[in-house]
Amino acid sequence: MLHGLVLAAMLSSGGPQWPVQAALGDALGLEFARCADLDSPPDTRIAACKMLLSASGTTSMEEAAAYADLAAAFNAKADYVAANEALSRGIAIEPNYWVLYNNRILLLLKQQNIDAALDDFRKLAAIDPAKFALEHPDWRERLYSRERGLLKHQADIDERFNATLADMKQDLSTALRRRCVYRADNNDLDEAASDCDLAVSMAPELPAAHMARAYVEFRQQRYQQARDDLDQVLKTDSKDAAPFYLRFLVRLKQSDKGADEDRKAALALDPKVEESAARHHLQP
User: Fold this and answer.
1) Residue 176: its pLDDT value, please?
2) Range of the domain at 145
């Protein structure tokens, strides 16, 4: 897992209650349940999913969903190569089934492959959930939310899809922000700035993205831009010493006579903030 990044769990196709076509029969229906059962051992799920995928009489959506569940089982075993292959096969069958892209993005972020994850996000964002529902009307009642609540209406499907996009934006923003800081610490400031700009555009509501960009802007001597970002951070997070201290340094560079106010605020929150800042090349 990407260091320090909390990722959402891979989305399942719906869990043990996943309905199947009656024509498939009880035995195959049981394999569908086992394939999707997140509480079963991964090897049990893998065997069930593989049996489904070798069976005849399944629809393309059932195959794609089985690949999503197969990937989740491989992911539980930390077999990321096999998980990625399963997701890619599912996408080839049903490119508008957004759960597959959601899960592959999470997998790519675990492997710190941020650029590939961004490419998948662009494909995810281009999906039209209404078109997907029209193409697969029988699946309107087979799609489950994270709470496993049945999605019976198009509005419910749209809501889940939009929630997926919002979650992905925050995960990608966090990954980009961390790479931005790493690159800045290693003096690759142009690439760092590009990462931080994208992190902010992905999730402007996250103070950490603005904080990271302010750090890079300060290193680039873009003091007013840094101050603007820090002002944004402190509107929502006034209990962290770091933005106060960085704004103190920015205001010093701008010959702001009130700069020491921010230094005092930072030290009151964290007496060791100056030591921490020095490790990131931040000193008066």
Assistant:
1) 97
2) 22-172
